[in-house]
Design brief:
With 121 residues, this protein is mostly helical. It is built from 2 helices and no strands. The chain has one domain. The chain starts with 14 loop residues before the first helix and ends with a helix.
């Protein structure tokens, strides 16, 4: 980076001042390079932190994915068993109800039949 306005046109006999004026652009150029280097290092640190953060996030997600993949089949099996238990209980209730109805019908039939018919059977 050159700063214009501070440097004057040197005269032939002004060699002493010429050296001091040429140091200023070199000094500012060096500061600019140092600043750029610091910016690059800062960006590298930010990117490094971001990389570490993303790697940790990916690892956590992979662990969670594996856990879910193991858990889902067990939950499906449990749901299947629960549905079967529910269906079995509903069928037991229907069978019990049908048995009760059959028993009631048999008793009603027995009340209409003569004692002779029941003894023959």
């Amino acid at each position: 980076m050159f700063i214009y306005g501070f440097q004057r046109t040197p005269k032939k006999r002004d060699y002493k001042n010429l050296k001091s004026f040429t140091i200023v652009p070199i000094l500012f150029n060096s500061i600019g390079e140092v600043y750029k280097s610091l910016m690059i290092i800062g960006m590298e640190l930010i990117l490094s932190d971001k990389k570490i953060e993303l790697e940790a996030k990916i690892q956590a997600l992979e662990v969670e994915k594996a856990t879910l993949q193991e858990e889902i089949p067990r939950l499906r099996e449990k749901l299947t068993v629960l549905k079967l238990e529910h269906h079995a209980q509903a069928l037991e209730n229907e069978v019990s109800s049908l048995k009760a109805e059959r028993s009631n019908l048999e008793q009603e039939i027995a009340s209409y039949t003569s004692p002779q018919e029941t003894s023959l059977t």
